[in-house]
Amino acid sequence: MINNVTLVGRLTKDPEMKYTKSGVAVVSFTLAVNRTFTNQKGEQQADFISCLAWRKTAVNLADFQRKGNLVGVVGRIQTSNYEGADGKRVYKTEVVAENIHFLESRKNGNTSVTASTNNAPAYNNNMTNQTPPPDPFASQEPFNISPDDLPF
């Protein structure tokens, strides 16, 4: 069976960090993902997709991302249901994020963080003696790639 989701969108509000009774971090957030077409009036529409992340991925998202930031999410769809206060069955569908990629630098001149939350080191802008990582694409000069370096 395959259950795989890839999304790129903007956070609709600051991520909401919570902890389970056993102390596991979980963050819920909503992504606004633009549709690839416009409506009859020529306006761009978006879907608002509920997501959640667990553990270190949750902590990194809550620490480094805010409303309006562009992120990429790779995960799976999860459905659940429960009985609401009115006694009716409530169904819920959300994306459980397994990897979250920060796709743009921080705003307002802060240190940039562009990293996957699962396998890249986070840059801590609270430390005054750190320098930002160099931008590998800053130079406009051509560079050579050996065929041995290509994965295909």
What does this entry show, briefly?
By secondary structure, the chain is mainly beta.
Describe the structure.
The protein has 152 residues and is mainly beta. It starts with a strand and ends in a 50-residue tail after the last strand. It has one helix and six strands. The model is unreliable at 108-128 (pLDDT under 50). The chain is extended, with a radius of gyration of 19 Å. It has a five-stranded mixed barrel. The protein has one helix spanning 55-64, and strands at 5-11, 16-19, 25-38, 44-54, 70-83, 89-102. Helices cover 7% and strands 42% of the residues. The longest helix has 10 residues, at 55-64.
Pick out its properties:
1 helix; 5-stranded mixed β-barrel; mainly beta; about 150 residues; single chain
> Mean pLDDT, as a whole number?
80
Q: What is the helical fraction, as a range of percent?
A: under 10%
The spatial strand order of the largest sheet comes to 1-3-4-6-5
| DSSP strand tally | 6
Percentage of β-strand residues: 35-45%
Poorly predicted spans: 108-128
Give the radius of gyration. 19 Å
Structural class by sheet pairing and helices: mainly beta
- Number of helical regions: 1
One letter per element, helices H and strands E, the order comes to EEEEHEE
Q: Could you state the oligomeric state of the chains shown?
A: single chain
Biggest sheet statistics: 5 strands, mixed, barrel
Taken from the alpha-carbon principal axes, the silhouette is extended
In whole angstroms, how far apart are the ends?
28 Å
